[in-house]
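Reviewers of the previous submission asked for a worked example of the structure-prediction workflow described in the proposal, so we include one complete record here. The input consisted solely of the amino acid sequence. No template or homolog information was supplied to the procedure at any stage.
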Amino acid sequence: MTAPTTEAHKAQVPRLIVAERFGVEVPTFQGEGPSLGHPALFIRLSRCNLTCESCDTKETWDWAQFDPREVSTKQSVEDLAAWVRPSPVELVVITGGEPLLQQRDLVPLVRRLLEDGRRVEFETNGTIMPDPALLVDGVRFNVSPKLASFGMDEAKSIAPTALRAFADSGRAAFKFVASSVADIGRIAELVDRHGLAPVWVMPEGTTAEAITSTTREVADAVASRHWHLTTRLHLLAFADPKAR
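From that input alone, the workflow returned the following structure tokens.
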């Protein structure tokens, strides 16, 4: 049998649209959610199906401000796995944008990472049904439904069928961004309506001062519901949190 040509072989290799990858050359932590403080590597994928006003990674989707040819590259599964391989860090966080837009090509990457002894966390907005091939041991989902206060129409950002699939999988935690104590009631409504658990609440903010202020505003309301409270560690720990 004739071996495929180089061009044909390249066409068959799964490739992902990547905004950035970090944590190998300069070590960092998972800054949010259940694995807060764990050493982590990050693969940030480009493209998103939402357009949140308060998004802090608009370079993954806002083509009115950014040129996608300048802020994203196509990288093969082999290249990404090879980038991870030398690191002793166990946790690989795949974030975005919305990574599940590319989940068909993520399946072979996740398999490679698991075979190499890693564990994988996805950061997802919870609007896209997870591929069953990703619902396996070693993979977790940090599902972050976006509220109206985050600058997104909830008719687009709250997807009941997908949320139920994540809840039923037993592999998801639900992380809500709260901009004020007023958001806690809306989070409670969504949690009760869609059967979401466990719940983490993260204060909105892009500076240490804003994070501290919002944390103090929402902490009592979160504690009274026996939910988890998470901060944004990278904003507190590093003077320049970009790519950290």
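The longest helix spans residues 208-224. We consider this example representative of the routine output the project will generate in years two and three.
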